[in-house]
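Please check this.
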Amino acid sequence: MLYPENFEYKIGFIKIKNLIKSKCISSLGKSKVDDIIFSNNIEKIRTELKHTEEFKHIILFTENFPVSYYVDVNEYLTRTQDIGKYFVKEELLSIRRSLNTIKAVLNFFKNDEENNYPELRKLSKKVGYFPFITDSIDLVIDKHGNIKNNASKKLSSLKRELSGKETGVSRIMHRILNSAKSRGDVESETELTVREGKLLIPVPAANKRKINGYIFDESATGQTSYIEPIEIIRLNNEIKELIFSVRREIIKILIELTNDIRPYFEDLRCAYDFLADIDFIRAKALFAIETKSESPTVKETTNINFKRAKHPLLLLSNQQTNKKIVPSNFIINNKQKIILISGPNAGGKSVALKTVALIQYLVQCGIQVPVHQSSQTGIFDNIFIDIGDEQSIENDLSTYSSHLVNMKFFTENANNKTLIFIDEFGTGTEPLLGGAIAEAVLEKINTIGSRGIITTHYTNLKQLADRTEGIINAAMLFDSDKMKPLYLLETGRPGSSFAFEIARNNGLDKLVLKNAESKIDKKQIDFENILKNTQREKRNLKSEKRKVRSLKNNLTDTIEKYESELNDVLKKKKDIIKKAHTDAENILQSINKKIEQTIFEIRKNDAEKERTKELRKELKEFENSEKEKRKIDQEKINKQIEKLNSKREKRKKKKIPEKKYSKQKNTDIQIGDIVKIKGQNTACKVTHISGNTVEVASESMTMKLKKERLVKLNNNSQNSYYKKRSAGINIIKNRDNDSDNSLIFGLDVRGKRAEEALQIVVRFIDDAVVNQKSEVKILHGTGTGILKQFIRDYLRTQSVVKSYKNERIEKGGAGITVVSLC
């Protein structure tokens, strides 16, 4: 049930219907728009929403859907229902074309092999196509809607006879005209003319007696007469009789054709009803695309969860003026059955209320709405509204009386499946009494279990919502600094009316305002101030949170950017080294082949001196050319390495956001603690303590330092450090020198995969260069494996490496590469 009678007008649904009508192709679809009804049948609603969603897909992703010749033939069918009535040729042409459209639509869904449109396909299966009707029409009329000469044998005979007589008349008329021209009775340029289906000779009025015949007509000036010669009057009469005969035969044919089609009238009405549905669904889909609408999930509840909801009419209006619309979220459930919205005038309270009312009504009419696709809503049996002024002189109703009539209806007819909307609740009478009545009505509605949204300025209602389960306060936010509404809905607290601020902003006299403030109860002023301050502080807090979140995201992006750049550099280095290996192998294979070929040639020619000399010369030339090629390749590789080194140096110079570690006093440093070197940002682990000398290990090195140079980190930072070190590397332990704080750099990469080990070595060498170390050691496995070869190839390409050599450690079964740095 809907209340009041003009419900659709009040919520703006009439405008929505007109917008959908404007997108219909024919009166078929428009009649369906007029027939839209509010429904509480959940399956019907879900199906209609699916229809719209599927047709949106058709509009957006296909181009061959038929949209022409949507003709409403119901009027033709009604007119020819009785025996003896018949379709005229224009109507038959419309029926033929529209039946072709229906056939094309049915074929479109039939050919949907991927089943993209299951609901629309299901709708089309209820409709049949009738080739007998189209074939019968094709026998009678052509593609332009003209009756075919061979529609019947008799009509064909009559048409031939008529054509012969018309040809005879034309021949006689030309003979008479030429004779008149030769006598000078008519001008030499005169041609035959046709009036009312007859061939006539135009003759000057002065000569009209010179041609024997019947004066059929004359010109407006009376200077020209149109003569029908006596010789063709008989023939013209015969032609006229034939025309009547043709007309009678055509009517007979049309009656017979209509009689043949009449048994299919009900089937045709069903087919055209399907075409009307398609036109209607297409119009709804176009409206949904224009308003960016979606189908919320519809459930068997009375809960509402509209996310990013927008009023469709306001959305379209703002699109025309390029204005942004502020979406709102609305939640109605068992805990908050009624939302009580308060806030300043022109702050958006009424728009918020009408948005929910219109969206819920559209959903229950099977129309998509401008909400986020994750929105949900229930089904209501009744929707009641009290919006606007219902003052009536005829019914002797004042504004407040009309509100009371509505409240009476609500309390008597509402139930737990009723959705109620009341705008400016309690206004129109003395505030204290009006507020008391409004409070009682609100308690009654809440007790019944109805859902709803109510707007108000009354403080007693805000206080009632604060202490009553099932009713929740909500506020339309207002920027008191800029004195403008934000159109944002915030639930959980009431809103201030900002009456004095708005009055002051509109220029009301300060003395008047001061006098007004003195007349208000201090408690009321305090209540309003608390609301305003709370609103302001909450808005500022949200703003600060957004700033912090933005800075955090920027910091994360910056760190990821630098890490990505470093990984790119390492990958490019690895690719260059791999290419150098491949090129070297190719060169060796090429040289070996050349040597083998030379030896073969020498043996083949029995070591002839001249031939041997030539082969040696060729071999020497080949050797020189290969050296030249290798020199060029090496120069290219060196240039690439220089570019990578240059890029890495630039990266080092960029200021990377510093990691924040919380510091503690260094007096209680123990083995296993995480510390930071003063003046640096690297966290290290304490591995050994000897007096005032502490050995620490970082990701790529070990070093001995005095306690004064270290700062212990707090527990949170230590936990963070251990998490980050979980995938760390093994550090060589060397405690031979405890006497000073010289740095001992060593790296153990045994057991690592070659690619992983090479990345660690790259970072290790970088750290050594930054800390100005002259020598470092890299511990790896014995033999000539790929790991050792990778390390050597990398060191050979680095300009910071002065020299390197391999040493063997017999006891550990391992090898060490000693690297001297510039």
User: Anything to note?
Assistant: Confidence is low (pLDDT under 50) at residues 391-396, 655-663, 721-744. Residues 522-604 form the longest helix (83 residues). The chain has 23 helices and 25 strands.
